[in-house]
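Example 9 (inverse folding). The structure is encoded as follows.
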């Protein structure tokens, strides 16, 4: 009786285990693919969890076979996405010890080296990938990007051209080629490259934005504004395009419109220090000095080491005849940049407003040590010398440029 019961129980266990679903653990490849998909839709926290699982899966695979080059590669890829760059490089190196012909590992190692600014080493890694696959347009493109960051612009353009021979529809390569031409000051060529990118992808907002920059270089300001407007049609949340549009409008003296553009940039990114700065300058251009000071103070909350923001705050305070505060603002600018001649000169102007004429002369002399051609400093010095009755010296100062 007991035997029969055990027999039935064993049969039950066997049958029960047979109908249970078999769940296989995901591979590192599968975790990585899932992580990339999550990252691309902005689910960064979930993506990080999947990359963590990819590292675990790679480690499990390597316990069974330390010579598994793919497992080392997958581990490196996941580590890269965590920003653990040194560990990622080590993992790629392990993969490449096992399989020196692993083109993807060379390429991805290059990407990591580029991310941490080791551009010469990145180029070497891309060269290894290209020995294995000379038709790798992506490796050629990234090689160009590294050359660009090293200031080797001719080499960068050659690399982009090689990538474009292989894939003439490579919009990003056209875009980066245009960016390199801007670094050269070849704005006409830059515009041609951006136009090629835009033929391939008319919704390429960054290309419209950078085309605007090239148009500014050619002093085609109205066309630049149109390019920024195209970028903003595609992406109204493009803070940089709003800022660039504002900068062009400000340069044209259209300060009201410039302020609106800066405000749109600041709605998107309230920590955009240079937008606060430019807004302050535009407000000053409209004679709205109190508002200018508020905007410049916002810029200085974000970046207290911005000498220009301190300087322009001083200028706004001068217009309001708040000379003591102006001097303090110029002093802050001069702590950051003691060679800021105009700040010394304006500080001299403020001393004159306070009738502190010896200090006017001292500040003017500091400005003139830096820039002998500073007409305002000579004029301030001459006026102070005249008030002090030192007329011969005053005349000599007025006679200077």
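The amino acid assigned to each position is listed next.
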């Amino acid at each position: 009786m007991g035997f029969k019961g055990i027999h039935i129980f064993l049969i039950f266990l066997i049958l029960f285990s047979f109908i249970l679903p078999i769940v296989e653990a995901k591979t590192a490849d599968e975790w990585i693919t899932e992580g990339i998909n999550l990252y691309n839709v902005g689910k960064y926290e979930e993506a990080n969890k999947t990359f963590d699982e990819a590292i675990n899966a790679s480690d499990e695979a390597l316990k069974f076979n330390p010579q598994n080059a793919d497992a080392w590669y997958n581990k490196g890829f996941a580590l890269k996405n965590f920003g653990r760059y040194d560990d990622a490089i080590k993992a790629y190196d392990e993969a490449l010890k096992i399989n020196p012909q692993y083109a993807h590992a060379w390429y991805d190692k290059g990407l990591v080296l580029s991310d941490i600014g080791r551009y010469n080493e990145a180029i070497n890694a891309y060269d290894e990938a290209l020995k294995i696959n000379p038709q790798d347009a992506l490796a050629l493109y990234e090689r160009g990007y590294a050359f660009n960051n090293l200031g080797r612009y001719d080499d960068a353009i050659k690399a982009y051209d090689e990538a474009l021979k292989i894939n003439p529809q490579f919009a990003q390569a056209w875009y980066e080629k245009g960016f390199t031409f801007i670094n050269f000051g070849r704005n006409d060529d830059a515009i041609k490259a951006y136009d090629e990118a835009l033929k391939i992808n008319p919704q390429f907002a960054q290309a419209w934005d950078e085309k605007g920059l090239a148009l500014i270089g050619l002093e085609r300001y109205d066309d630049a504004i149109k390019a920024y407007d195209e970028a903003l049609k595609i992406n109204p949340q493009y803070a940089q395009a709003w800022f660039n549009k504002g900068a062009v409008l400000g340069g044209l003296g259209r300060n009201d419109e410039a302020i609106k553009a800066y405000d749109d940039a600041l709605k998107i990114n309230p920590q955009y220090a240079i937008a606060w700065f430019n807004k302050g300058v535009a407000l000053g251009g409209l004679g709205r000095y109190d508002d200018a000071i508020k905007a410049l103070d916002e810029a200085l909350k974000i970046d207290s080491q911005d000498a220009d923001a301190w300087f322009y705050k001083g200028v706004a305070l001068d217009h309001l005849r708040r000379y003591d505060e102006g001097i303090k603002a110029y002093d802050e600018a001069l702590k950051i940049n003691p060679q800021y001649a105009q700040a010394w000169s304006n500080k001299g102007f403020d001393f004159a407003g306070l009738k502190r004429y010896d200090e006017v002369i001292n500040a003017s002399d500091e400005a003139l040590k830096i820039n002998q051609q500073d007409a305002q400093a000579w004029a301030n010095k001459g006026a102070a010398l005249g008030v002090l009755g030192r007329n011969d010296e005053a005349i000599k100062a007025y006679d200077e440029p």
